[in-house]
Amino acid sequence: MFDVPRNSRRLREASLMPEKDNGSNNVPIYISVQKDLLKLIRDRQVQPGGRFPSERELSLRFGASRMTMRKAVDHLVQEGVLERRSTSGTYVPDRLFDRPLSDHIPYSISEVVEKAGHTPGSKLLFFERKEADELIASKLALSPGDPVISIERQRTVDGVPVCLEFSHIPARLVPGLSASDVIENKSLYKLFRDNYQLDLSNKVSIISIHRVTKSEAALLDIRPGSSVLRFEGLSVTSDGQPFEHLRSLNHPDRVSFTIQQSPGESSTDEGRPVRWMLHS
Question: What is the average per-residue pLDDT within 67-82?
Answer without folding.
Answer: 85
